Amino acid sequence: MEKVTVGEVFSISDESGEDQDVEVLGVVTIEGTDYAAVGFLDDLEEDTEDDIDVFFLKIDEDGDFSAIESDEEFDKVSAAFDEIFDEELDEE
After folding, report:
1. Buried-most residue among 20, 29, 63, 76 (CB within 10 A)?
2. Which domain range does residue 51 map to?
3. Which domain of life is it from (predicted)?
4. How many folded domains does the chain comprise?
5. What are 16-51's pLDDT values in tens digits?
6. pLDDT tens digits for 53-89?
7. Is there a domain that residue 4 lies in?
8. Is there a domain that residue 2 lies in?
């Protein structure tokens, strides 16, 4: 299985079954499980000061994506990405 990389673009189906392109903004491994932070490509390509929606997806051993299933897991993943993104901002 290939590792998911930052900048990778792929399609996911939204609630209505329509495909949406998303771009990987970051990847983190927590307790042996990989997670990706993604944003809708259309939102990322817009030249705007508005906040963009970022979603966290779990990556299984086959490279397939799934939703995070519990609030506890979401909080862990969100905190890990906050730490990563804060460090990147401090470096700029």
Report:
1. 76
2. 9-91
3. Bacteria
4. 1
5. 889 999 999 999 999 999 999 999 998 888 877 777
6. 889 999 988 888 898 999 999 999 999 998 876 666 5
7. no
8. no
